[in-house]
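Renewal narrative, Specific Aim 1. Our central claim is that a sequence can be written position by position from structural information alone. The example that follows is taken directly from our test logs and has not been curated for this report. It begins with the structure tokens describing the chain, in the order in which they were read.
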């Protein structure tokens, strides 16, 4: 007669299985007031509090497994949300989630136009897609009218940088950025402008962007940026219904006490640097790069544009 004795390795595995099963049972039957156990982990705020706390005695392996799973999940979520590490988390303590179904994707309310300052589209496309350069735009339009799409419109492309327009201090969050393949010192080909007008019409129809919210980078970053250049056909855009414009400046006499700086501020310019704001205004509305003294005609134009800006834009954005 022989006695059955399990092999040492099999015995070790059996004991380990029994121990793990006991841990699992304890884990899922833990009382509600015991942190980091069982159903407590089903609440996101408690999960993260649990991650920060010391492991409870007797459950190191299960805690370790949970922490690893959460770490992997968090890393994947961060990869899915570009630059999520740049933003602080919303408040979690004393916050009650009451989810509402009444929302949709946020939509842009501005269009910002740029020059690539390159002589062809290839180098600009490489720059705008290079992670090390940290610049991008939603679209690039080539000289021949080819439309390149780089970033989804509902995403925040990095094209405007530090910017201001009419109180808005983060144009990247509110705009579609369009790069035009142009050196910044040459006329814009007709095919490129025709394609731009098609894109603007499409954006306006889908997002109801007010006509006067089509701007240049130089308008929203005066003193720092000068694109698009004085060659850009703002009047042609205005005749197609895009951008702020005044068709009869002389028909709006300037009040005696009118202040040019207040007029520029009313149009939307950042007046932290009045000289830079006026230079941006002259480039956009007079196609001039010089810094000559304001004439009466220029002041009439400023006043006319300020009045135009007060009009209710068409189409007005929906709620
Ligand atoms: Zn630019």
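The sequence written for that structure reads:
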């Amino acid at each position: 007669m022989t006695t059955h004795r399990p092999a040492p390795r099999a015995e070790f595995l059996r004991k380990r299985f029994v121990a793990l099963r006991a841990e699992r049972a304890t884990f899922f039957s833990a009382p509600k007031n015991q942190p980091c156990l069982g159903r407590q982990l089903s609440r996101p705020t408690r999960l993260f509090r649990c991650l920060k706390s010391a492991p409870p005695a007797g459950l190191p392996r299960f805690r370790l497994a949970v922490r690893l799973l959460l770490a992997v999940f968090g890393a994947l979520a961060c990869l899915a949300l570009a630059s999520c590490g740049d933003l602080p988390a919303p408040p979690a303590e004393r916050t009650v989630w009451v989810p509402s179904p009444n929302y949709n994707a946020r939509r842009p309310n501005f269009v910002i136009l740029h020059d690539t300052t390159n002589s062809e589209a290839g180098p600009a496309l490489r720059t705008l897609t290079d992670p090390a350069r940290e610049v991008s735009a939603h679209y690039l339009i080539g000289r021949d009218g080819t439309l390149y799409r780089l970033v989804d419109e509902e995403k925040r492309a990095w094209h405007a940088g530090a910017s201001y327009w009419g109180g808005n201090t983060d144009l990247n969050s509110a705009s579609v950025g369009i790069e035009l393949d142009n050196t910044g010192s040459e006329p814009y080909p007709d095919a490129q402008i025709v394609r731009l007008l098609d894109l603007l019409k499409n954006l306006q129809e889908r997002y109801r962007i007010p006509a006067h919210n089509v701007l240049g980078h130089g308008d929203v970053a005066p003193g720092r940026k000068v694109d698009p250049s004085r060659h850009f056909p703002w009047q042609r855009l205005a005749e197609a219904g895009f951008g702020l414009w005044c068709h009869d400046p002389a028909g709006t006499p300037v009040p005696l006490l009118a202040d040019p700086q207040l007029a520029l501020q009313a149009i939307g310019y950042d007046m932290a640097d009045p000289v830079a704001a006026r230079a941006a205004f002259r480039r956009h509305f007079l196609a001039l790069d010089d810094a000559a003294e304001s004439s009466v005609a220029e002041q009439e134009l400023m006043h006319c544009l300020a009045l135009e800006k007060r009009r209710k834009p068409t189409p007005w954005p929906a709620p």
